[in-house]
Automatic annotation (TrEMBL):
The UniProt record lists the keyword Oxidoreductase: yes
Name of the molecule in the record: Zinc-binding dehydrogenase
InterPro entries given in the database record: ADH-like_C (IPR013149), ADH-like_N (IPR013154), GroES-like_sf (IPR011032), NAD(P)-bd_dom_sf (IPR036291)
Native source species: Sphingomonas colocasiae
Domain Alcohol dehydrogenase-like N-terminal: 22-136
């Protein structure tokens, strides 16, 4: 099969062996796969990710010197079930896949695994229990957005913010937009977004934010008194993932507020615990999602509660992947989400 392969500092389109589904697994023919920030991190900082894996005791550590096929935001078609596997959905069913497959060391993330190549390839294997059928009327690219937007749904669920609460979303890249979309779908009464980019602030409003702030001209944390929110109904979602952002949230939070960290920071960071203690802040971290949140996110996309009309900004073939990664690694690139169709060059 053809795939986009990370090889050293390159992304190359070439032929690789097709995967075979094992017991309990299913083979999908990939229709579309989104480009995630995790893919960009793994491409540019493979050695750092390997070291992080060792520090946290991960069982499946990426080797930056080995070939890797990215892609975990997957829409595909059921092609074949593994030996002895119940055919939960008929062959030919269009699905989105919770990107997990079971290997010798337990569950692995498809596309961030040397054992399970991801959706930048024409075929991909996942556990058969991880499939959700795609409703008619959704494009393949829209369906592939289920995975990244489920990340936002999980963060909002963990925060437990009521309809009368106030959410402040710091950073309006794909993660921040997913959080905003989930907050809007949950009917949260006041959603304030903050980002330096005018285009991202505009997108934040389109996804459901009630106000978007340029932190270069005003502090997003100065909004608390004007909003008049009880402290425990205020949540800051940190969606940037660079050193210093958690401490900025601690310093800017109102007493009794909650901070939910969703941005992925790959380095050590420093906070002032006493400042958080003195305000009795609640600080939590959110990663990935549950299967129920994955299903609900697809339902929200299908019925329009999450509007993707401006989210997918480019759909590319395999040969454009390397140039697209270079573009997305720069600042002010203007893209929101890029989708790869690995079946076309």
């Amino acid at each position: 099969m053809k795939a986009v392969v990370r090889r050293g500092s390159r992304l190359v389109s070439e032929e690789i062996p097709a995967p075979r589904p094992g017991p309990g697994q299913v083979l999908l023919r990939t229709l579309a796969c989104g480009v995630c920030g995790s893919d960009l991190h793994a491409f540019s900082h493979g050695q750092a990710l390997a070291e992080l894996g060792r520090r946290v005791g991960a069982k499946n550590i990426l080797d930056p010197d080995r070939d890797l096929v990215f892609g975990h935001e997957i829409c595909g078609v059921v092609a074949e079930y593994g030996p002895g596997t119940e055919a939960v959905l008929p062959v030919g069913t269009r699905v989105v896949a919770f990107p997990r497959a079971t290997g010798p060391n337990g569950l692995e993330t498809v596309g961030l695994s040397h054992r399970f190549p991801g959706g930048y390839a024409e075929q991909v294997c996942v556990d058969a229990a991880m499939l959700v059928p795609v409703p008619d009327g959704l494009s393949d690219a829209e369906a592939a957005m289920t995975e990244p937007f489920a990340v936002g749904a999980h963060a909002v669920a963990r925060a437990g913010l009521g309809h009368d609460g106030v959410a402040l979303v710091i950073g309006c890249g794909p993660v921040g937009l997913a959080v905003i979309a989930a907050l809007a779908a949950e009917g949260v009464g006041t959603i304030v977004a903050s980002d330096f980019s005018p285009a991202r602030r505009e997108m934040a409003i389109a996804m459901g934010a009630h106000r978007a702030i340029d932190p270069a001209t005003e502090s997003p944390f100065a909004q608390w008194p004007a909003l008049g929110v009880p402290p425990r109904d205020a949540v800051i979602f940190e969606c940037v993932g660079v050193p210093g952002m958690i401490q900025q949230a601690i310093a800017g939070a109102s007493a009794g507020a909650q901070i939910m960290v969703v941005g992925v920071c790959l380095t050590d960071d420093v906070i002032l615990p006493y400042q958080a203690l003195s305000k009795e802040l609640r600080i939590g971290f959110s990663a990935a999602y549950t299967m129920d949140e994955f299903r609900e996110t697809l339902a929200r996309i299908a019925d329009g509660r999450i509007d993707l009309s401006r989210v997918v900004t480019d759909v590319i073939g395999r040969s454009q992947a390397e140039a697209t990664f270079a573009e997305l690694s720069g600042r002010d690139h203007g893209q929101v989400k890029v989708v790869i169709e690995p079946w076309r060059e």
